[in-house]
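Table S2 (text version). Query chain:
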Amino acid sequence: MYKIQNFSRVDETEYSLPTDNINLLYYDLPKHFSDEYRSYDSPRLCTIIEGVKEVSINRSERFVYNHNDFVLLPPHSNVYMSMTEYTKALVYEFSDCLIDKVSQKVSENLQITVAKDIEYSTFLRERINNRLGSLHQRIQEIIVEEDANIHFLLDLTCQEIIYELMKIKGCYDIIYHHQNHPINQAIRMMNSPHGHEMTISHIAEEVNMSLSGFSQKFKLITDQSPKDYLTRLRLKKSKQHLRNLSVTDTAYEVGFENISHYIRLFRKEYGVTPKQYQLGKNQH
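Corresponding structure-token output:
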């Protein structure tokens, strides 16, 4: 598994370990490293394998945590982070599909009560209990073993991690609030197969918000406008299509009618043109 040595979104996307249901990010950070860290569309379960982090989350007071603790970040969190020593960290992102699958099977038996007044910026710091620690260790073993069925094994183990998290007071609140918040509902629509065909007005209407109210709330939470988010999402999807389609066909496929505009935006976002990106991929 690749080691990520900074908090660049490009590097996180390029060097993560994704399966159908989870995304794993392994960070290898030097002593005295500091930067702003973000979660994006999903909650992030942050763990430390070695070292120490000093953090301030969503403008909270600064605190220090190590391998004995985990932090559960809600989507679109801002974290100011510094390493007082060499630090290795493993971060989990769980898909809505996996969370739903586990929740539907166990939430009734767990008798979970969801808080109604949770803030969007609410995060949770907790001690890693014995069972969660064992599962976390198992994930690391699976990564090292590189079994042919690694994706299956990771998904299977992460189901149990989610189950253990749901048993901890406050974790389910963050996950539930994430899934049912109108902005995250809108983001799921944008990420759907036909999301690039939807207008911002249509999306706002679907989540029962006025266009102005939706745009303002979206910007407040994600730090970007709905239009900018949708554009970046289209560019990201276009990278997948560029493996099999021409630049022109790719542009049309993800909703760009002006090819030159698409090329200009792609280069601004990724530092290369779509054609250069294609050539680079074909060489690997």
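Notes on Table S2: The CA atoms of residues 196 and 255 lie 6 Å apart. The domain at 182-282 is CATH 1.10.10.60 (Arc Repressor Mutant, subunit A).
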